[in-house]
Amino acid sequence: MKKYSVLILLFLFACSDNLNELKEKNKLPNDIRWVTNSSEYKILCQQIYNNATINLLPLINKKNIKYAVVMDLDETILDNSDYQINLIENNLSFTSENWSAWVQQANARLVPGAKDFILNLREYANIQIIFLSNRMHVNLEPTINNMKKLNILHDEDIFLLRKDKADKKYLRRDEIILGKNRMAEVGPMQIIGYFGDAAHDFPKEDKFYKFGTNMFMFPNPMYGKW
């Protein structure tokens, strides 16, 4: 058996009691501890979603137009801090293999405020939620299962996950705006809001798209490219 396969097995069978012990004994790095334990993180996420509700809903003013809200998944809707704790516990670093193993468990929790915001959007028939994530498309089924467990999935939701390395987020945003490729059957859509935790989750700011108005960035000190 390959070495990485053994490590993945260790990762998959990490004991949740040990995760709780790590949290309680403050043995986590500050970035993970801040996300898992602090009231500030929870307040910030709730504040962002509340601000989004105040700013976006007044834009839904023409019932004959189908609007799109584009949302990243990880650390925007799905809280993967337990994955980060598993890495610490097993002395591992991120790999695509152990990340995929985590995704397939479908055990991510919710970012504070995400569920209420999504359920609020569901009240508007002319809003299409599009989940645009760099999770690989091969992991679509466990991603859907995870969201079902969290009671935030709707039959009409659209998932634009990553097909391969070349399938960048800006290409998938263009598919939504132009109604091409995977979005050809849906047609062009007007995007009224973007949500994410990294700069590449968003288009460049311009006269219409601005952070804090219709683009909303979530705090994620656990990983990224800085």
Report on the structure:
The chain has 226 residues and is of the alpha/beta class. The protein is built from nine helices and seven strands. The strands form two sheets. The chain has a five-stranded parallel β-sheet with strand order 5-4-1-6-7, sandwiched between helices. The chain has a two-stranded antiparallel sheet with strand order 2-3. β4, α8 and β5 form a beta-alpha-beta unit.
Throw out a few tags for this protein:
9 helices; Rossmann fold; 226 residues; 7 strands; two-stranded antiparallel sheet; single chain; five-stranded parallel β-sheet; globular; alpha/beta; 41% helix
Question: What number of structural domains do the residues give?
Answer: 1
Give the full name of the CATH homologous superfamily: HAD superfamily/HAD-like
The fraction of residues assigned to DSSP E strands is 15-25%
Number of helices: 9
Query: For the record, what CATH class applies?
Result: Alpha Beta
- Read across the widest sheet, the strand sequence of neighbours is 5-4-1-6-7
* Chain-averaged pLDDT: 90
Helix content: 40-55%
The count of DSSP E runs of length 2 or more, i.e. the number of strands, is 7
Our measurement of the CA-to-CA distance between the termini, rounded to an integer number of angstroms, reads 35 Å
Any low-confidence stretches, pLDDT <50, length ≥5?
Answer: none
CATH architecture: 3-Layer(aba) Sandwich
Q: Helix/strand-derived class?
A: alpha/beta
Please give the radius of gyration in angstroms.
Answer: 18 Å
Largest sheet: 5 strands, parallel
Order of helices and strands: HHHHEEHHEHEHEHEE
Shape: globular
